[in-house]
Specification:
The protein is α/β, with parallel strands linked by helices. The chain has one domain: Alpha/Beta hydrolase fold, catalytic domain (Rossmann fold, 3-Layer(aba) Sandwich), CATH 3.40.50. The chain has 15 helices and 10 strands. The strands form 2 sheets. Strands 1-2-4-3-5-6-9-10 form an 8-stranded mixed β-sheet, with helices on both faces. A two-stranded antiparallel ribbon has the order 7-8. A hairpin with a 2-residue loop joins strand 7 and strand 8. Helix 3 crosses helix 4 and helix 6 runs antiparallel to helix 10. The longest helix is centred in the first third of the chain and has 31 residues. The protein starts with a helix and ends with a helix. The mean pLDDT is about 85.
Length: about 350
């Protein structure tokens, strides 16, 4: 019986050895090959100013919707998460569906930009970009689509500009009630975190500090990701996707010092946006002033912006046409990758198409 069991087990052992050999070969290839290209959809930079780059993506179809789409990225990351690769690009998907797409991308803030505040993004960068989109497209109305903190900036702009020219507002994983972002509160606890001393000492916040804060949200995240990569090393598509997402995460940007200080104090500690107490440029930011159609997409398994942090948005805005949708996925996979291809992108197209004529 033992001899028979051993004989039956031999093929499995051989298969495991072969898989291990193939993993090692693929692993060597992973370590030595170039990182896959990202952001390949043809585009033109129509404006650059310090930390901001404004891009217009070249149309892919003859007939396009009248209302252009301006996508606003979070200031912590590059916007090519919207344009990872052919077939895995939200921008490409929207272009093929007939939308005219512009993107606000961010560069690392210069040392002399350390004094940029939330006001500069909401009352200068976004309005200036909208004006340039209007001039370039020849259209008055503009749809804004914001991701994460880019969604927060877009929401602040919408609340302070109720008379337009915004036509629609689409938001992805956008926090509103910052008191519900428990893990961020843990590392930024005002009893121990001297944000004034930090910013006064270093100016702009280095990406290494941001990496550490995100790692604290999921302490085993990187290790689990490497294990998953090893288990799927023979899957070329998985490895390619992993490398693109890993590159995007590793290329995190510094944050302008005053912007970070203000975010911690006014949003994280005092929760002024949710309470209706935030004042920008001498004007109070009230969510009830937002009247345009709004779509807010949240992720079921978002460890960065939990559902509870984003859920109050739709309830508090003044729009008659508003919708919240909760989709399977995490903070990044909601917007990019295979999960987004099946879920968020078609939903966005269905919602936006009838509101873009």
């Amino acid at each position: 019986m033992n001899a028979m069991a051993e004989a039956l087990a031999l093929p499995d052992i051989g298969a495991e050895i072969e898989r291990a050999i193939q993993r090692n070969i693929k692993g060597l290839d992973f370590l030595t090959s170039a990182t896959p290209s990202v952001g390949q959809t043809p585009k033109d930079e129509i404006h650059r100013r310090g930390t901001l780059s404004l891009y217009h993506y070249r149309p892919m179809v003859d007939e396009i919707y009248r209302v252009p789409v301006l996508m606003v990225m979070a200031t912590t990351n590059r916007a090519y998460i919207f344009d990872l690769a052919p077939g895995q690009s939200m921008v490409e998907y929207l272009l093929l569906k007939g939308y005219d797409v512009y993107v606000m991308d961010w560069n690392a803030p210069r040392a002399d930009e350390k004094r940029l505040r939330i006001e500069d993004y909401v009352l200068d960068f976004i309005p200036d970009s909208i004006r340039r989109v209007q001039e370039d497209s020849g259209e008055e109305d503009v749809t804004i689509a914001g991701y994460c903190m880019g969604g927060v900036l877009s929401t602040l702009y919408a609340a302070l500009h109720p008379d337009g020219p915004m036509k629609n507002l689409a938001l992805f994983t956008t926090p509103i009630d910052f008191s519900r972002m428990k893990l961020f509160h843990a590392w930024s606890d005002r009893r121990y975190f001297d944000v004034d001393r930090l910013i006064d000492t270093i100016g702009n916040v280095p990406p290494e500090m941001l990496f550490a804060s995100f790692d604290m949200l999921r302490p085993a995240g990187r290790s689990a990701g490497v294990v998953q990569l090893w288990d799927n090393m023979a899957n070329d598509e998985f490895v390619k996707s992993y490398r693109m997402f890993d590159r995007w995460g590793a290329e995190m940007l510094p944050l302008a010092g005053e912007y970070f200080r203000q975010t911690v104090k006014e949003l994280m500690w005092d929760n002024k946006l949710f309470k209706g107490e935030l004042v920008l440029g001498g004007r109070k930011v009230l969510l009830e002033n937002i009247k345009v159609p709004v779509l807010h997409a949240l992720a079921q398994h978002d460890h960065i912006v939990p559902y509870e942090a984003g859920q109050p948005l739709v309830a508090h805005i003044g729009s008659a046409d508003k919708e919240e949708v909760v989709l399977k996925g995490g903070h990044v996979s909601l917007a990019a990758g295979a999960n987004a291809v099946r879920r968020l992108w078609p939903k966005l197209d269905d919602w936006l198409g009838v509101r873009s004529t």
